[in-house]
Write a structure and sequence with these properties.
With about 600 residues, the protein is an alpha/beta fold. The protein has 22 helices and 15 strands. Among the domains are: about 80 residues, 2-Layer Sandwich (Gyrase A, domain 2); about 280 residues, 3-Layer(aba) Sandwich (Rossmann fold). The protein starts with a helix and ends in a 9-residue tail after the last helix. The protein binds one RNA strand of 77 nucleotides through helix 15, strand 14, strand 15, helix 18 and helix 20.
RNA sequence: GGUCCCAUAGCUCAACUGGAUAGAGCAACGGUUUUCUAAACCGUAGGUCGCAGGUUCGAGUCCUGCUGGGACUACCA
């Protein structure tokens, strides 16, 4: 069937032509605000210049023409420069009947018209456990991947693990010195937490040595450079790079602990990856590229032998891409891995990096260099930049211990949800295992929705002293709405596959028109890489559904057609909520 | 010093990308259950959209300046 927007677009174009002899390409329509009567609104201010008429006059003239010539339009009203147009219930019923039994409503199957997109997210360091900032990264990446798939694209979810470097050696060194052979098994600690403990231990020892050196008259800078543990740590990194078997073995063992730990957290968060990359394999990439760049005169050699690029024309600075000793810097390997990925997947159309906005500058530089090197796909690289999660007293800092640990937070969410489920009268008939399963679903929904409902670009605040809500604009509220849909449909126990056409109650109409826009909401959220748009829409749907529940009796309704329609409407609400929540990575329960 | 981001109700967030009287939730106060799930619904109260200009039919949204906060600006990763 033809969409409402398309129908109105054509009708309004024709009307403008007929009444004012105007040819307009783009008509901008918006949903009518709920204080006014109507479904869609045309802003007529835009045409005052061309027609030399007053906005009210244009509204009246267009409205009258549309009413006379478009059967689907049954009413209009003009308020100042706004022409509010109402479509017939018959039109809405036609739309409703065309989608009401589609379980895939709003989701596009992946087909040849879709792109192939690699989306990188998570990308943890293997020296400490995950915290709330990583949770935002993981939830955002997983959700955007699902949303892009729902828009018909093929998505390769990639995780580039930062598994080598000086920071990893810090944990290793501290474990060698203070560990006494401690393992996850012997300590009962989750692997990533055990390794994190030694990362902190290193920092403590390092700080103590610095303090001693400063006390003996050394400058702060020199103390940082010459503290024995730091020197030992750098030696450990050299040994690793030289392939010293003992060091490599320790590195393997400790990273293994961390992967086991991360695996547990990833599972709780419900995130997964199609492709794992490890920096230990990729950190040397990009060196040949430097030669290529020199040959193309994109890079230049400085007097001291280092290689750089001048980006001052783009408002960026000079950037070193190779040190004077011939070793690469971080951006060198980023350049290398990007190129490697397009080689590995020739069908790749787009490469998305889910990384915090503190690296905005880095990605500007990276993409700019790729562009200058002449890679045509450089313009298809995108930095999915998100804001930091802040605590009431500022940013989280691992070293200062001001972090909200991911595992602790998840556990806390489960516990809060468990108490709520256990105390609920409605859930008395469930056994312990069922309550636990439901608590996990609800607790995780509260956490995920809390994170994803905020525009990714914006920084967000988390107060550890205030628990995440379960009432109001929350994940559990939307889950509850879904459980209500299941409950009434189960009780009704009747077949829904008959088309009816009824006169709509205002609440039914509002709910129906909101459900109508679900597919375009998914498109928009995909276009903007923004799950919050879906989250907010699901909240609107749920809120309206609950008002409908209150205003419109379903099983008690005596008119069979109306009753059937209401059940079908409930069913479509359930579909929209379930499909939308899946895109946020949130499961929906059939009872709660 | 330079570049970029942010500032909306007591708190956490919206505002369909320039449209109508800036909306929700939490917290506060009041009401709704012999009727499909009260994790719900309805109501009251709460605003100089950081400040000052500008652009135009129209600005929370765009441009300039200012104030306040943050990030980045390594031959670190």
């Amino acid at each position: 069937m033809i969409s409402a927007e398309h129908l109105l677009n054509n009708a309004i174009k024709t009307a403008l032509n007929a009444v004012y002899n105007l040819q307009i390409e783009e008509i901008s329509l918006q949903k009518t605000r709920k204080e006014f009567e109507g479904d869609f609104t045309l802003v007529t201010f835009a045409y005052t210049r061309d027609t030399r008429k007053k906005p009210e006059e244009i509204g009246e003239a267009l409205g009258a023409y549309l009413l006379a010539n478009t059967p689907e339009i049954v009413k209009y009203n003009v308020v100042k420069g706004f022409l509010n147009i109402s479509l017939s219930d018959a039109f809405w019923m036609l739309f409703f009947n065309s989608v009401r039994s589609s379980a895939q409503f709003g989701l596009k199957p992946s087909d040849s018209s879709g792109k192939t997109i690699m989306l990188e997210y998570s990308s943890p360091n293997t020296n400490k456990p995950l915290h709330l900032g990583h949770i935002r990264n993981n939830l955002l990446g997983a959700s955007v991947a699902a949303i892009l798939q729902a828009n018909g694209h093929k998505v390769i979810k990639a995780n580039l693990v930062n598994d080598r470097g000086i920071h990893i050696c810090k944990s290793m060194l501290a474990w060698q010195r203070f560990g006494n052979g401690e393992t996850p098994q012997s300590s009962g600690l989750k692997g990533d937490h055990l390794v994190g403990k030694y990362y902190v231990a290193f920092d403590k020892a390092y700080k103590e040595e610095q303090a001693q050196l400063i006390a003996s008259g050394m400058s702060k800078e020199d103390a940082e450079k010459s503290a024995p543990v730091m020197l030992a740590c750098q030696e450990l990194l050299r040994q690793w790079e030289a392939g010293n078997p003992e060091v490599v073995q320790l590195w393997r063992t400790m990273n293994g602990w961390v992967y086991d730990g991360f695996g547990v957290t990833y599972k709780e968060l419900g995130v997964s990856f199609d492709k794992m990359y490890y920096e230990s394999n990729t950190y040397l990439l990009g060196k040949e590229l430097v030669q290529e760049g020199l040959a193309k005169s994109v890079f230049y050699k400085k007097e001291n032998g280092s290689v750089a690029i001048d980006l001052s024309a783009e408002g960026l600075d000079e950037k070193i891409v190779l040190r004077s000793d011939g070793t690469s810097v971080y951006i060198t390997q980023d350049l290398g891995t990007a190129i490697e990925r397009f080689k590995e997947f020739p069908e790749l159309n787009q490469l998305i990096y889910t990384v915090g906005n503190e690296q905005d500058y880095h990605f500007k530089v990276l993409f700019s260099i790729l562009q200058k090197l002449g890679y045509s796909w450089a313009s298809e690289c995108y930095h999915l930049s998100y804001g930091m999660v802040e605590l009431p007293d500022g940013k989280m800092k691992s070293r200062e211990g001001t972090v909200v640990d991911a595992d602790d937070l998840i556990k806390e969410m489960y516990e809060t949800a468990f108490l709520k489920c256990r105390d609920s009268e409605k859930l008395k008939h469930l056994n312990e295992a069922e309550i636990k399963e439901l608590s996990k679903m609800v607790g995780m929904a509260a956490l995920k929705y809390f994170i994803l409902k905020v525009d990714p670009k914006k920084k967000m605040l988390f107060d550890p002293n205030e628990s995440v809500d379960f009432d109001g604009n929350t994940g559990p509220f939307i889950q509850y709405s879904y459980a209500r849909t299941r409950s009434v449909l189960d009780k009704a126990g009747m077949a829904l596959d008959r088309n009816v056409s009824i006169t709509l109650h205002p609440t039914e109409k509002e709910l129906l028109t909101t459900l109508y826009s679900f597919p375009s909401v998914i498109e928009e959220s995909g276009h903007l890489y923004n799950p919050a748009i879906i989250a907010n829409h699901l909240y609107d749907v749920s809120k309206l559904f609950n008002r409908f529940w209150h205003d419109c009796p379903i099983l008690k309704e005596e008119n069979e057609d109306v009753k059937l329609f209401r059940l079908q409407l409930v069913n479509l609400c359930g579909t929209v909520i379930a499909n939308g929540m899946r895109l946020l990575g949130i499961e929906v329960p059939s009872r709660m």
